[in-house]
Structures are given as C-alpha cells and as structure tokens.
TrEMBL record:
Annotated CDD domains: ligand_gated_channel
Signal peptide: 1-23
Protein name per its UniProtKB record: TonB-dependent receptor
Domain TonB-dependent receptor-like beta-barrel per the UniProt entry, residue ranges: 207-649
Domain of life: Bacteria
Record localization: Cell outer membrane
Major localisation: membrane
Coiled coil start-end: none
Record domain TonB-dependent receptor plug: where: 57-159
A UniProt-annotated Pfam family: TonB_dep_Rec_b-barrel
C-alpha cells in the first residue's frame, strides 16, 4: 500500500503584496461580503459595466474575490475558491469533475467567463471548475441572477467572470510558487513579465499533480501491515495531472489598450478499476484526456468625450478523449477495449462581442449598444451526423438614468436570432437608491434564458448500458428573476461595520431535463419539463477592528419539489436548506504575519423522489462543515512568502444520503454517499517574487 508522508518541502500561491493590501483594507471600509476580509470596498469591477467602476457604485450587486483572499485560502482552482461562498454548492464526480450550483439552480445555468470569454466544454451540462486554475488570476467577479442581456445563454442563475492578470506594475517581474498538500498534491507555477514603454509581455505556466485519494488511506504513517497487491488501485478521487501555459501581450496607446491572450490547458484523469475475474489478474482502466486551447483579442478604452469602447474576438476549442484498456496485472501490459469504449468529443466556439457606450461624469444619462455573436460546433461519433453547428447572433442595448445623485435607473434589452431555436426577447431592469452615504438599496427584475446545447439537441449514445438520444425540438429555458438587497456601512469608534441583507426569487419555465421517454426500450431523451422555482434570503455582517476582521454570513435557500403538484400529495412545494459562514483574519504587522480561518456549514438538504414502486419518498443529504486554517509569513518586503495550514479541519469526506437508491427518472440514478471533499490534510508552501522597476516607463505602467 502506498503511503503519503507529510512533505517538508514548502509551497503555496500567495500574493507578494498581501500585507500591504491588507493594511490598506483595515484602514478603509469593510465590505458586506464575508470574503472581503481582504477585499477593498473600492475594488474596480468590469462585468456588465459601461466602464470600470468601484463595486459600491455598480447598479448590480457584485461580489469580488481578489487575489489576496485566494492566496490566503491556499486555493489552487475555482473549486477551492467557491467552496466558501454563500448560495453556492459544489458537487464532485470522479470522472466529470466538479460542478457548481448557484441560487439553488444547477451549474448548467451558471455562465462562467474568463476575461469576458465564455468557457466551453460542458460534461453532463456542467463546466468542470476544478480545471480552471487561479494561479494567474487577479480577481473573480460574481453576479447572482440572470445576466442574459449582456451574455446571452447560460447566464440564468448567475455569472462568474474570472479576471486574469494583464499588466505589470514593474519593468520586470518574475516569480515562482509551489504548493504541496499531504493528500498527494504537488503543484508549481511560474511567471515572468517585461514592461517596455507601451508594450508588456507576460508568460506563465503551471503543472499540477494529484496522485489520487481514497478514504481508506487516511493518515496511515505507521501501518506496516501486509496488503494484497493492487487491492487499493481504484480510488474515490482519481489521479490527475494538469499542465497550463499562458501568454499575454498588451499594447497601450493614450486611450486604448490592445491585448492578445493565448491559453493552453491539458489534463489526464486516470480511473483505475479493481481486479476482476476469479484470480483477479485483469482490470479495466479508463483514461480521460482534456485539451483546451483559447485565443482572444481584446480592445478596451475611450474615444472622444465620455465614449467607451470594448471589443473581443475569441476562438476556443475543447477536446475530451476517453479510452479504455484491459490491463494484465501480472505483466503490466495493456490491450485496448472495444471500439464502443473509445470516444472523442470536440467542441469549438467563436465568440465576438463589441459595445459602444457613453458614460460621462456628471451626466444624468448613460447608454451603450453592442452585438454578441456565438457560433458553436460539436464533432464526435455521438453527435447525430458527426458534426453540428449552432449560431447565435444578438444585438443588445441598455440605458442608465440618474434623476438625482441618489437614484439610478438601469434598463436593458437583448434580441437574438438563433439557427436552432426561436430566441425570446430578453429585458432587464435595475434600481439603485442611496438615501445617504453608506446605505445602498438595490432591486432588479431580469428575464433569463438558456439555449439547448449541441449535446441536448443532437446527442446519440447507444451501447449495452445506455440508450440516449437528443431532441432537436427542444425549446430554450426561460426565467423570471427578482432580487433585492440592502447594505449599510458605518464606522463606530474605530470599528468598521457592514451589514447586508439580500433576497432572490427565480421561476424557470421549459426547464430541460434528461428523462425516460420509452420504457419498453429503456430509452432516455432530453425534454422540456414543467416549471422549476428557487428562492432564498441571506445576510452578511462584517466587523473590522484594528488588525482583526470577522465576518458572519447566513442564508436560507428553498428549492422547488417537482412532485408537489396535485391535491392528494402532502409534499411541500419547497424544501429549504440553511447555510452559515464564519471567516476570521488577524494580522500582526510587525511580524508580517497573518492568520486566517474560513468556515462554512451546510445544513441537511431535503428533497423528494419516486421509489421503485412509484411512491414519493423523502431523500436527504446530511449536513456537513468545511473549514480551513492558514498562516502566512512574508520577508524581504513581501518578496518571499511562506504559508502553511490545515484544510478540511472537520475531516468531511463522504456525506450520507438517505433513500438515495430511488428511481431518479434519469439515465444515471444517484446512489450511495455523496462525495464532498478529500479528508483532512496539511499544506505548506513557498513563493518568491522578483521585481525590477523601470522608472522611464513608470508613467505608462497602467492603462
């Protein structure tokens, strides 16, 4: 049996200026979002905005997670970051990866962007957020509720925009960070950049390795008992190896910034099977290879008095290969499985978006107009006809009116033509009222929609275990969303106080679901089902005093029960799940030392499903808690940083599901424990940053 010894090597991803940023934070206002332990309230946001604005001035309610908080968590990918967020639920599949649910709605309705470019490659409707690394991320902006006017399909439950680092603050920058975790994670990333005059070049790369984890391994440092060969080759969390390479070039004019970014990503998941047969000489192993290649040209700036321009053109490709081999465990040789066990799926997306807006300071009226083009191509033997294309061509516009300094009215409209379905007209309305400084009241109505994807329309999968076909008659999902929030900020005797209360209601019609459509043939297809609804309320309270910041958050989310219809049923219309979050951070400036605690409690999640006899029974996912502790120390003007800590303090792994073995009505029923996280682990890390100022170019450092 392989044992994992706690490494003495050091690792982690920590921002070099963490201490300075934190000091600035505690001297300023404390944000309503708990994660803003390291987030300044005056952070600039760009998602869905006419021009970059401070977060508190945006008409939408935008959460910002900056690089200081990401570093303090020891987060390696988007999954790690979102684990601590309110109204966000993470699910784990050993093969499909990590998916996200927002506002009680599945990740199929969550739009994920990188620098405004949509991320493609959904498996079972979800983006694997563990593939989105954060070592080169400046901040993450989250908007709950539909953003369909700006970003079109999939932006029904919310939008997550990952903003990568695009500029340099010095003439030359270079750095390396390593991360090691006792469950078998070994990561390293590096970055080098040069800023010369109007030009800047940044090249970065990373290798992340995880050799798999299983609950039976535990912290087995002294167990030298003999084990049967290959008795533990199959693991609950599969081994994974990832490579990233990123290139960024910026050219700055007086008012315009031109940027090219290219990203390459590949990973390999090894899903080993248990020994089979009477003697256990053979096993079936599956290999899942993913390759992403992203290219984008971005232009941002101003033109004339008060005019803002934004343009992007991007081409993204995604390929996923699945290969099965039969391994002879006595010789170590592999033999390919049957042709039906091998599969390659290719998806490509061309996206172009441009806006022209006017937003001059002191003017009551601001507006913008733009277009959004998305052409998606799917290729593979499980796509009807082998190749399918879907084109979406949209025009949108919005206007913002300020009748007084304290009131903002914002309305938007989107019209689209789609080659596969009839797109609805999408409106939105936002209101922001500030009766006095420190008090903000926001309310919004948004129409959302989600277009059927290539897989849902044209999928064909037939083997001994599956009979799934697409449905080219599907209609897009549509939703009506209402949300409102009140936030209050005030300084009371050196205590920075911030309180926020927010609520939402989302009603979805024509929701797309995979269901049994032919019981005689046991055939499944995608259909438009009836309504689905979700609603909730949350509150966040943040306190900052000297070098201590404490934040508490709580939410209460209700999810609609599909079986609640009819007069004879006693099933409630909604099942509710409470959540609570506590974040603490304390700094010792003299020592350049920071201690942070991130904790989130998720109560039991009830629901209803049909058992094998067709009776409605209650299903429940047990409650669980995820908490992380990290300690950070820097030297040499923050150029050298070391961090260490413990993840998953309460050792949460699998969570029990009651009545899980019921008929789910889908091709893949849910049964057995739910995988939430790997067990308790220790991590340790080291980061080094080298900078060399170029005083001649100092005035041109930032656009």
């Amino acid at each position: 049996m392989k044992r994992k010894y706690l490494p003495v090597a050091v690792s982690a991803m920590l921002a070099a200026n963490m201490q300075q940023s934190y000091a600035q934070h505690i001297q300023g206002e404390v944000s309503t979002d708990s994660i803003r332990t390291y987030h300044h309230l005056n952070s600039v946001v760009v998602t869905g905005q006419y021009k970059p604005v401070q977060a508190e001035n945006a008409v939408q309610r935008i959460r910002v997670i900056d690089q200081q908080k990401i570093a303090a968590m020891g987060a390696q990918n988007l999954r790690d970051v979102l684990t601590n967020e309110m109204n966000v639920t993470i699910a784990q599949d050993n093969v499909l990866g990590s998916s996200v649910q927002m506002q009680g709605i599945s990740g199929q309705n969550v739009k994920i962007l990188v620098d405004g470019v949509p991320v493609i490659g959904r498996q079972n409707g979800n983006i694997d957020i563990s593939q989105l690394n954060v070592y080169n991320v400046e901040r993450i902006e989250i908007i709950e509720g539909p953003m369909s006017v700006n970003y079109g399909t999939d932006a029904l439950a919310g939008t997550i925009n990952i903003i990568t680092k695009s500029s340099l603050s010095r003439g030359i920058e270079a750095g390396v960070n390593t991360y090691t975790e006792s469950i078998g994670k070994y990561n390293i990333n590096g970055r080098v950049g040069v800023n010369r005059g109007r030009h800047s070049f940044v090249l970065s790369g990373a290798r992340n390795f995880f050799d798999g984890w299983d609950p039976k391994e535990g912290w087995d440092y002294a167990d030298f008992k003999a084990k049967m060969p290959d008795s533990n080759r199959a693991r609950q969390w599969d081994p994974k190896e990832e490579y990233n390479l990123n290139f960024n070039y910026c050219y700055r004019l007086k008012r315009i910034q031109l940027r090219y970014k290219g990203d390459y990503f590949q990973d390999l998941i090894t899903n080993r099977g248990n020994p089979e047969g009477f003697y256990g000489y053979t096993a079936f192993d599956d290999y899942y290879r993913t390759c992403r290649l992203n290219n984008a040209i971005l232009v941002n700036g101003t033109a004339g008095k008060g005019y803002n321009i934004s343009f992007l053109a991007a081409y993204n490709s995604y390929q996923r290969k699945m290969n099965r081999y039969s391994r002879d465990l006595t010789t170590g040789s592999d033999q390919p499985g049957s042709p039906s066990d091998q599969d390659t799926s290719d998806y490509a997306l061309f996206n172009s978006r441009a806006t022209l807006g006017k937003s001059a300071s002191g003017k009551k009226l601001a507006y913008e107009a733009g277009y959004d083009i998305n052409v998606e191509k799917g290729t593979g033997k499980r796509i009807a006809g082998g190749v399918k294309n879907i084109g979406d061509y949209a025009a949108y516009g919005s206007a913002e009116y300020r009748p007084t300094d304290s009131l903002i009215l914002h309305g938007g409209l989107r019209y689209a033509c789609n080659t596969a379905f009839r797109a609805p007209l999408i409106p939105s309305l936002n209101i922001k009222y500030t009766p006095h400084k420190g008090l903000d009241i926001r309310a919004a109505y948004s129409r959302g929609f989600r277009a059927p994807g290539v897989k849902e329309l044209f999928f064909e999968f037939n083997d001994s275990n599956h009979d799934i076909i697409g449905n080219d008659k599907l209609k897009p999902e549509q939703s009506n969303n209402l949300n409102a929030s009140v936030s209050f900020r005030k300084e009371i005797r050196q205590v920075q106080l911030s309180v926020e209360v927010a609520s939402f209601y989302n009603s979805i019609s024509d929701m797309i679901s995979l269901a049994l459509t032919d019981s005689a043939r046991n055939q499944y297809s995608y259909i438009n089902i009836d309504h689905y609804k979700a609603k909730g309320v949350q509150t966040n309270v943040s306190l900052g005093y000297k070098h201590l910041v404490a934040t508490f958050g709580a939410s209460y989310i209700g999810r609609f029960n599909q079986l609640s219809g009819g007069e004879e049923t006693s099933i409630p219309k909604f099942s509710y799940t409470p959540e609570a979050r506590l974040n603490l951070s304390y700094q010792v400036p003299v020592w350049h030392f920071t201690a942070s605690l991130f904790g989130k409690y998720t109560s039991k999640n009830p629901g209803y499903a049909l058992d094998t006899a067709g009776n409605a029974v209650m299903t429940t996912i047990a409650a669980y808690t995820i908490a992380d502790l990290s300690l950070t120390k820097t030297w040499a003007q923050d150029k050298i940083s070391i961090s260490f800590g413990c993840k998953n303090l309460f050792n949460t792994g699998n969570v029990n599901r009651l009545n899980a073995n019921v008929s789910s009505g889908t091709a893949h029923s849910s049964s057995g424990p739910l995988s939430i996280a790997t067990g308790r682990s220790l991590f340790v890390g080291l980061g080094y940053t080298f900078t060399h100022a170029n005083t001649k170019n100092h005035d041109q450092q930032q656009y």
